[in-house]
Design brief:
mainly alpha; flat
């Protein structure tokens, strides 16, 4: 199980690097802020997988922390999108 969680974390970091570099399915054109937010979100999810691999008892706090970080990134992304498209 621990190996599976580590592999999932590494895969999320790989997707995050692809999003930063605009490679493959992440080669869409558009707002850089959305691309960077998506890449950072994938990186945060990969950290959550690594945290789960380190200790199962910390799963609930890491899960709640990940949700709060993703929520903050989403609100920040939406606010910036609204501000840029006035």
């Amino acid at each position: 199980m621990v190996a599976f969680l580590i592999i999932c974390g590494l895969f999320m970091q790989y997707l995050s690097l692809l999003a930063f570099a605009r490679v493959g399915i992440f080669s869409f054109s558009g707002n850089n802020f959305i691309r960077y937010t998506f890449a950072i979100t994938l990186f945060v999810v990969s950290l959550w997988f690594f945290g789960l691999a380190i200790g199962y008892q910390s799963a609930i706090p890491l899960w709640l922390g990940t949700i709060s970080v993703l929520g903050m990134l989403l609100v920040y992304q939406l606010a910036t999108y609204k501000a840029l498209n006035k």
